[in-house]
Amino acid sequence: MSNPSLLILPGDGIGPEVMAEVRRIIDWFGDKRGLSFDVSEDLVGGAAYDAHGTPLHDDTMAKAQEVDAVLLGAVGGPKYDVLDFSVKPERGLLRLRKEMDLYSNLRPAQCFDALADFSSLKKDVVAGLDIMIVRELTSGVYFGEPRGIFEEGNERVGINTQRYTESEIDRVARSAFELAMRRGKKLCSMEKANVMESGILWREVVTEVAKDYPEVELSHMYADAGAMQLCRWPKQFDVIVTDNLFGDLLSDAAAMLTGSLGMLPSASLGAPMANGRPKALYEPVHGSAPDIAGQGKANPIACVLSFAMALRYSFDQGAEAERLEKAIEAVLASGVRTADLLGEEGVTPVTTSGMGDEILKALDASL
Ligand SMILES: NC(=O)C1=CN([C@@H]2O[C@H](COP(=O)(O)OP(=O)(O)OC[C@H]3O[C@@H](n4cnc5c(N)ncnc54)[C@H](O)[C@@H]3O)[C@@H](O)[C@H]2O)C=CC1
Ligand SMILES: CC(C)CC(=O)C(=O)O
Ligand SMILES: [Mg+2]
């Protein structure tokens, strides 16, 4: 049987830096665990624009549709601010999400014990935190029509449209209920049904889907109150399901519960392919971090943990995913830290590749 295929799209800024560490870890699993992948690499975002004048070449899009999973670093950067909106780096990523129909974006926020002191919140608020935000990823205000900047009278008006169909809400709600069944059987749905019709429909459809999951305790919260509760007492949550925009905001906020945006992975999943695996793209939650790019300061853990999610959700290798997560836990427990996590007494600063070295050593020690 041939190896499973992976398309790697490092992207821009710190994307290639963190992805270089993931490639070493992928090689380790091939050498030491007999878990080999057919890896190909291509361009996305600003890097693709520089080479082809488009943030995602059609050939790259076609490859992404064919492989078993895509791993992406990050896109964007100030160099591309002057570009027309239609060819901005971020459009490349949005096209991948939309055309692969990756409607369910899993963004776990887990606080490693070693980092509980580092969070901007009190230790007892975050210690042991393990929540999962499920963000709808292919619809809502990021994609709704009409959109654009139009002339209206003697001024311009910028328009984006929040739009959700029942089936779009239904499928992401089901994916969240399925996850909740495998976790703590608690699901909180967040919208703004108090001011938005799309929120009213969201709440109705989620409530309807809940009938198929009687074991899951469902609650509803307005997303603004949800943001507040995430900071006040995040451990009240198990799985959260929310729309595209609220999920984008809430997951960045949740990142800080774990200490750094450099710690948060994500999986973007769609419908099963012919081989039974879901369409899938894995990427860190963070962006291209132009402020630290090229300085060896980027934390590669979010991207490495995204590969761990690929092992779990695409390749049915839960035990190997856990091996990788435990290796990262051990490295953090030993006091090794990238620049984003410095500040405590007695920690050992390392560069991006230094963190990769330490994770590889911890993996070796796991054998
Ligand atoms: N999925 C993606 O590719 C995303 C791309 N972006 C793009 O990235 C560019 C920069 O956006 P920002 O708003 O600055 O968000 P960002 O996530 O790139 O950076 C926010 C802050 O977090 C820090 N940070 C992020 N990742 C880190 C890591 N792995 N290690 C250490 N520190 C890290 C950065 O240094 C910065 O101070 C923009 O062009 C934006 O559109 C933003 C978010 C997601
Ligand atoms: C297209 C991305 C830049 C939007 C974003 O911030 C995200 O998906 O996290
Ligand atoms: Mg974001």
> Any ligands, ions or cofactors bound here, and which?
1,4-dihydronicotinamide adenine dinucleotide, 2-OXO-4-methylpentanoic acid, magnesium ion
Structural class comes to alpha/beta
Number of domains: 2
Number of strands: 14
Please write the string of helix (H) and strand (E) elements. EHEHHEHEHEEEHEHEHEHEEHHEEH
CATH class of the largest domain: Alpha Beta
Portion in beta strands: 15-25%
Estimate the helix proportion, in percent.
40-55%
CATH architecture name of the largest domain: 3-Layer(aba) Sandwich
How is the largest sheet built, in terms of strand order?
Answer: 2-1-3-12-11-4-5-10-8-9
Mean pLDDT: 96
What gross morphology would you assign? globular
Terminal CA distance: 25 Å
Please give the radius of gyration in angstroms.
Answer: 20 Å
Subunit structure: Homodimer.
Pathway: Amino-acid biosynthesis; L-leucine biosynthesis; L-leucine from 3-methyl-2-oxobutanoate: step 3/4
GO biological process, one term: L-leucine biosynthetic process
Site (Important for catalysis): 142, 192
Fold and architecture overview:
With 367 residues, the chain is an alpha/beta fold. It folds into two domains: 1-108 and 262-367, Isopropylmalate Dehydrogenase, CATH 3.40.718.10; 139-257, Response regulator (Rossmann fold), CATH 3.40.50. Helix content is 40%, strand content 22%. The protein is built from twelve helices and 14 strands. It has helices at residues 15-33, 46-52, 58-66, 89-99, 123-126, 166-182, 197-210, 223-232, 244-257, 301-313, 318-333, 352-365, and strands at 5-11, 38-41, 69-74, 104-110, 130-136, 144-152, 155-161, 186-191, 217-222, 239-242, 265-272, 278-284, 336-337, 348-349. Strands 2-1-3-12-11-4-5-10-8-9 form a ten-stranded mixed sheet, with helices on both faces. Strand 1, helix 1 and strand 2 form a beta-alpha-beta unit. Helix 1 (15-33) runs parallel beside helix 12. The longest helix has 19 residues, at 15-33. It starts with a strand and ends with a helix. Bound molecules: 1,4-dihydronicotinamide adenine dinucleotide, 2-OXO-4-methylpentanoic acid and magnesium ion. 2-OXO-4-methylpentanoic acid is lined by residues 90, 93-94, 248, 285. Belongs to the isocitrate and isopropylmalate dehydrogenases family. LeuB type 1 subfamily. One of its GO terms (molecular function) is 3-isopropylmalate dehydrogenase activity. Keywords: Amino-acid biosynthesis, Branched-chain amino acid biosynthesis, Cytoplasm, Leucine biosynthesis, Magnesium, Manganese, Metal-binding, NAD, Oxidoreductase.
